[in-house]
TrEMBL record:
It comes from Mycolicibacterium komossense. Residues 313-336 are annotated as: Disordered. InterPro entries: DUF4331 (IPR025566). This is DUF4331 family protein.
Amino acid sequence: MSNHFTGLNLGPPLGDQRLDLCDLYAFQSPSDPGRTVLILNANPTAGPLHPDAIYRLAVDNDGDLLNDIAFSYVFSTPVDGRQTVDVYLATGEQARDVEAVGDKVFEGVEVSFGPEPNIATSGDLTFFAGARSDAFFFDFDGVKNLFDTSGGRNFTALTLPGESPWTGTDSNTEANVFSTVIEVPTSLLGAHPDIRIWGRCSLHHDGELEHVDRAGHPSVSSFFNTDETKLEYNASEPVNDKQRWTAQFVHLMGHTGGYTDEEAEAAIDHEGTLPDMLRFNPSEPAKYPNGRVFTDDVIDYRLAFLSKGDIPPSGLSPHTDTLTGFPYLGPPHSSP
């Protein structure tokens, strides 16, 4: 859930947790290095997703920051606790269409809300959708200790306390999330040599398709945005990120890490923070910022980035209930 604590006053998109994109992962299949796993998580309640929304996982494989491949997930209206999902695969120009277009590669796949995952296959694609244990680990109270959140401020006013801010408690040990997992031949992605991946949630609302959330780098949207800019950020496209958001990011880094403008821009360019897309070179081991795996401590990484290394690690350990086989995330925790 690295994109959950975005604006303290904003909450989930349109006040609806079903529309909230949480985390994006990309890594090589543990059992077949010629296959790539792409995971887009949403809805921290792990309940059904919105039947009027399009959840999209998009890939740029030639560096122009435009979609070349798009997987679109469209969910049915839940009935008696059950839900199904259709998956569309679009390539080329079709991948840039905002609607769910392309080939319907999965149809009517039953969503899993219990411990046993319903795994679907279609040709050389493998797919899962449903509730799973959330692999994201973080010390939420410790994060709050680092920021002045008085008066409803966002996580943009970093304060470095004289003592360690960390509580040593993982706030996410019993958390679930709604996960969509797709595994594909790496050759399908056409990496030259890398790809850039991002997620989007769009809602058919009042006769229009409204872009309400996006996901790319872990915790970038959380820490770099404010309540005033978050809606615009969610509706924007990666191709415009550097022009629109660099100045805001540089300004924030000056406050949080004492960066000069030149240092901040260099750090952003070195990491590839903008555009806000997850980069993955499948010929290299997956470890953020090259893709993302469940053991990556992305909060420690981001806080070190923001503070120019002044914030010490939290000391938390990754979750141990992840799986070595598909769908990789562990079974959901039982409700208390």
